[in-house]
Every structure is written in structure tokens, then in C-alpha cells.
Design a protein that fits this description.
The structure holds two protein chains of two kinds. By secondary structure, chain A is mostly helical. Helix content of chain A is about 75%, strand content about 0%. The longest helix of chain A has about 50 residues. By secondary structure, chain B is mainly alpha-helical. Helix content of chain B is about 70%, strand content about 0%. The chains are: A mainly alpha, B mainly alpha.
Chain lengths: ~300, ~280
């Protein structure tokens, strides 16, 4: 009797172990395809860019360890500082204005009823287009001689070639393109505020402006910080609009970090130094993302 | 009360005006594309295409690489969409439903990946693709775009909410994990799957930076990359240039208009606001 109990116990634990092993094998098969792609095309390049930034590698990857030489060069490179400054200027011109405009559009949209879908689509539609379609359209709108904007205002301004106006023009194009995305987040935020709050305040005799400043705006603050950081991260990565519209010109007055990295890597084939330039963006964006992550977490969103 | 009503009407009018202003660049692109080439340069501008002409469209479709770029974009975007969803669904199901060692580590590694900017890793990525012999190939365009960890996080959240009893019943019936995933978990979540499919397709279609780096010859370019070339080709031929812009934007614009709700839902879920 004793032995048979032991045997059956052993059999139970054996079959349990077999089942668990089978589950592990299944799990491994399920996660393998993504994990391989993720490690190969994401984690590996992320680590590799750090290593490359300490080498003088060319674009085929051949080169030697040069210590911190690239970083010393970076600190003394006026074109790098200019590209960083321009990126900062572009961020300044886009992030806050775009967020403010998005909030305004969201407030405009939520109070409509029958026209709501149409108006929302009108503001959102540009965001759905490829960047190069957006730039083609605006190159035509802002064309110096025959462009509709200059004709309407009686100007002869070559917007994207003008040292003063090139960057604001690129910022304007960008805001037109992406404002719909932020608006959408604000609309979701506004709709999550219970109507009773505003109704109660209205009954107490609060004006529309008072209701906005004392109820809507504070409740909307978490969404606002989310929108601001998402915009910040997106606009730090500015490349295509500047590359297409101004080419970084006139005289490098609009060159941005990612574009300088591109030029260094793919036109001068200096992959080591280009990686060092990338590292700056890498670190700035990681810090901004961490900020966003903690803000999401503090709001209880996973 | 009367005053409020007047204010309301003014607000609505202002909103409509703003919406019209926002749509104007799109109207102007379509309108220009339907003009005869010589009418595009009228001073003052003519607000409507008169007569309507499809000459611009006919010419860009006949005498440019546009059809080829269209094919490249459709092909790569469809493959990317299918592969991203398949990889995402498989991985998310395992994380959500099966206990295995290293699960927490994997999930945190995915979340950490959100912080790494893809654009800053282009140089080593290009070297890797070069070593794999995939520069200027479909493989080279597609492979790095398969990494979309947010899809896994979203699917995991949705799979977590599927009632446990459904899985237990299927296990008792002797169904394997793949069967359970594709006949129970996925059908229940068709809504979010569709929404993610549409935004993944739009994202893949619109992607600029990576295809721009990896497609080195004209015939391998996707639409967004290829059309940056046509301006040099056409010079100041704006009917044709706008026809190119309209044709390049049309598939994603139609996808949005047809699936408006799904697109907005997916974007909100992705931003971590719903779901």
C-alpha cells in the first residue's frame, strides 16, 4: 500500500512537471519570433550606438577605439552646437504653441453636436498624411512668386530660404501637420470630466471662463503634461521637414541634430562621430521618456 | 440666456472658420492638381479649377516611377502590418496567459524599449542591415519596422481582461495554446486588432526616415521617399506636383475617413488613455 501511494504521488508530480515544461516550451515558441526581432533590430543597435560613439568607424563599421576623442570633438564643434540650438529653437516654436492650439481646438470640438465629427476630422486629417506630402503641399502654398499665401498678403518672401523666417515656417508646417493628434488626447480628457462638475458650477452662477479656469483646466492638467512630453519627444526628432524644406540652409541656419547626424554618417561616412552625435539625442529623449513614464505611472496608467 | 445663445452661435461660426482654414491647404492641393498646368500660375490665383483637367494625374502616372513606388508602399505596409500584429499577438498571449520564467523581465524590457529613440540608432542599424546584405531590398525596409512593442502592451491588456473560464474550458477540451489564441482570444478582441491594424498600416505607409536611409535606388523607394524626388524632376509644374501629393496621401486619408472611430480609438489606447 505504501509503495503504491508513493508511486502515484510521484506520477502526479511528474505529470505536473511535464505540463509545466510543456507550458514553458509553448511560451518560448510564442515569444521567440518577436523577441528575436526585438533583440536583433532594437536592443543590439541601441547598445552598438554607444560602442560606436567611442570609435572612428566608417559606415561599414570598420574602425578603432579612440576613447573619448569624439566627445571632445563634439564639445568643440560649432556646427554641433548650432544644430542643438536650432533643435531647441524648433522645439520652442512647436511644443507649447501646438499644445495650446490643440487645447483650443478640443474645446471648440467638444461643444458641437451635429458638426462634431466633421470638424474633428478637419483638424485631424493632416496628421494622417506622410510628412513628404505635407511638405509638398506647403512648398506650393508658400512658393515665393505664385504661392497663394504670398499672393494673398502681397508678399514676396521666400519663406524656406529666409534666414529669419525659415525655422518659423517649418514650425508652422509642423504644427498644421500634428496638432490633430494632441487635440484628440485633449478631447478624450475633456470627455472624461463628469458633466455634473460644470453643471453644478453653472448653477452656482460661475461664468464660462470661471468654470474653465477653476474646474476644467486643473482636471485637464495631467493630460496637458502628457501632451507636452509626447510633443517634446516627437519634435526633438525633427528631421524630414527641415531636410526637405530648407536642407538645413540658408548657410546651416536651420540644421538640426538628426540632420547633422545623417550628414556625418551617410554623406561623410563618419559613423563613429555620427554615433556620438546620436548619443546626445539618445540621452535627451531617454530623460524625457522617463519623465513621461513616471507621470503616467503617478496617474495610475500602466 | 439670449446673450449665451448669441455667444454660442459666434463660437460655432469661429470653429467652422478655423476648420475651413485648416482644411484649406488640402483643398488647395486637390484644386491645383485638377488645373491645367498653365492655370496654376495665374495672378491673382483662380480659386476653382476651370476647366477641370486630369492631365496632371495622367502624366505622373505615365511618366514617373509613381506606380512602382505605390507597389513598394502597398507591399511593405501590408507585410509590416500583418507581421507586427502576428508577432505582437503571439508574444502578448504568452505574457498574458502563460507562466514562464523570465516573463517579468521580458515585459519590463519591452516597456524600457519605449524610451529608446529608434531615430538615434539608425547608424548601427544600417550597418547591421548592410551586413545582412539587405540594403536597398524589401527585407531591409521591412525588418526594422517590425519592432512595435506598444502593440504587445495593448494586446496584453486586452487579453488580461478575457474571462479565465473561457481558457479553462478550452484547455479541458484539449485545445493547444495556438488554437486557444486564434479561436478564442483573438476573435473576442477583433475590435482592437482591427484598430491596431489600421494605425500600423498608416504608420508603415507614412514612415519616412528609415526607408529614406535604406532604399538607395529610385525603384526601391516607398511613396513618401520617392515623391521628394519629383520636385527636382518637374521643376515648377505644380499641377503635376500636387497630383503626386494627392495620390501619395489618398490611401491613408481614405483609410482614416473610412475607419475614423477605429483610428481615433487606437491612437488614444496607444497613448495610454483608454483600455
Amino acid at each position: 500500500v505504501m509503495t503504491s501511494t508513493v508511486n502515484s504521488q510521484a506520477a502526479v508530480s511528474w505529470s505536473k512537471r511535464k505540463r509545466r515544461l510543456a507550458a514553458w516550451v509553448n511560451a518560448l515558441l510564442l515569444i521567440a519570433p518577436f523577441t528575436i526581432v526585438y533583440l536583433l533590430f532594437f536592443i543590439y543597435p541601441a547598445a552598438k550606438v554607444v560602442q560606436l560613439s567611442f570609435t572612428n568607424a566608417d559606415i561599414s563599421g570598420i574602425g578603432e577605439f579612440v576613447g573619448t576623442a569624439n566627445y571632445q570633438r563634439l564639445l568643440a564643434d560649432p556646427l554641433f552646437w548650432r544644430s542643438l540650438k536650432n533643435t531647441g529653437y524648433f522645439v520652442l516654436l512647436t511644443v507649447v504653441p501646438c499644445t495650446a492650439l490643440a487645447l483650443l481646438f478640443a474645446l471648440m470640438v467638444v461643444r458641437l453636436d451635429r458638426l462634431k465629427g466633421f470638424v474633428m476630422a478637419a483638424f485631424f486629417l493632416p496628421y494622417i498624411l506622410p510628412v513628404s506630402v505635407v511638405t509638398l503641399i506647403w512648398q506650393w502654398l508658400l512658393e515665393p512668386r505664385f504661392g497663394v499665401v504670398n499672393q494673398l498678403f502681397g508678399l514676396r518672401l521666400a519663406w524656406f530660404q529666409d534666414p529669419v523666417w525659415a525655422m518659423p515656417a517649418v514650425a508652422l508646417v509642423t504644427i498644421w501637420w500634428v496638432v490633430g493628434f494632441s487635440m484628440l488626447l485633449f478631447i478624450a480628457g475633456l470627455q472624461s470630466i463628469p458633466n455634473e462638475y460644470r453643471e453644478a458650477a453653472a448653477i452656482d452662477g460661475a461664468t464660462g471662463l470661471q468654470i474653465f479656469l477653476n474646474i476644467t483646466w486643473p482636471l485637464l492638467w495631467p493630460i496637458t503634461t502628457l501632451v507636452l512630453t509626447l510633443q517634446l519627444i516627437a519634435q526633438l526628432k525633427i528631421f524630414a521637414q527641415v531636410y526637405i524644406l530648407t536642407g538645413g540652409g540658408p548657410f546651416n541656419s536651420t540644421i538640426v541634430v538628426l540632420q547633422y547626424m545623417y550628414r556625418t554618417a551617410f554623406q561623410q561616412f563618419n559613423a563613429g562621430y555620427a554615433s556620438t552625435i546620436s548619443m546626445v539625442l539618445f540621452v535627451i529623449i531617454m530623460v524625457a521618456s522617463l519623465l513621461q513614464f513616471y507621470m503616467l505611472r503617478s496617474r495610475g496608467v500602466r | 440666456m439670449r446673450r449665451l445663445k448669441v455667444l454660442g452661435v459666434i463660437g460655432t461660426l469661429g470653429t467652422m472658420l478655423m476648420a475651413a482654414l485648416w482644411l484649406f491647404p488640402l483643398y488647395w492641393a486637390v484644386s491645383t492638381s485638377l488645373k491645367r498646368e498653365m492655370n496654376t500660375l495665374a495672378v491673382p490665383p483662380s480659386w476653382f479649377p476651370n476647366p477641370i483637367s486630369f492631365q496632371g494625374y495622367a502624366e505622373v502616372l505615365r511618366a514617373s516611377a509613381l506606380p512602382r513606388w505605390y507597389f513598394n508602399s502597398v507591399f511593405t505596409a501590408v507585410i509590416i502590418t500583418l507581421a507586427v500584429l502576428l508577432l505582437g499577438v503571439l508574444c502578448a498571449y504568452a505574457i498574458s496567459q502563460i507562466d514562464f520564467p523570465g516573463k517579468t523581465v521580458l515585459f519590463w524590457a519591452l516597456l524600457a524599449g519605449f524610451m529608446l529613440p529608434f531615430d538615434a540608432m539608425i547608424v548601427p542599424l544600417f550597418m547591421l542591415i548592410n551586413d545582412l546584405g539587405q540594403v536597398n531590398t524589401f527585407g531591409g525596409i521591412i525588418l526594422p519596422q517590425l519592432v512595435v512593442p506598444v502593440v504587445i502592451v495593448i494586446f496584453k491588456q486586452f487579453f488580461d481582461q478575457v474571462p479565465r473560464e473561457l481558457r479553462d474550458a478550452a484547455v479541458i477540451d484539449g485545445a493547444g495554446e495556438f488554437r486557444i489564441l486564434f479561436s478564442v482570444y483573438l476573435p473576442i478582441n477583433w475590435g482592437i486588432t482591427w484598430a491596431l491594424a489600421i494605425v500600423t498600416f498608416i504608420g508603415a505607409w507614412n514612415n519616412f526616415f528609415w526607408p529614406f536611409i535604406v532604399a538607395t535606388s529610385t525603384e526601391m523607394m516607398t511613396i513618401p521617399v520617392g515623391i521628394t524626388q519629383v520636385k527636382e524632376v518637374y521643376g515648377i509644374a505644380y499641377a503635376r506636383t500636387m497630383a503626386v501629393a494627392v495620390l501619395a496621401g489618398l490611401p491613408v486619408a481614405l483609410a482614416y475617413i473610412a475607419f475614423q472611430r477605429k483610428v481615433t480609438d487606437a491612437i488614444m489606447v496607444t497613448a495610454g488613455l483608454k483600455g
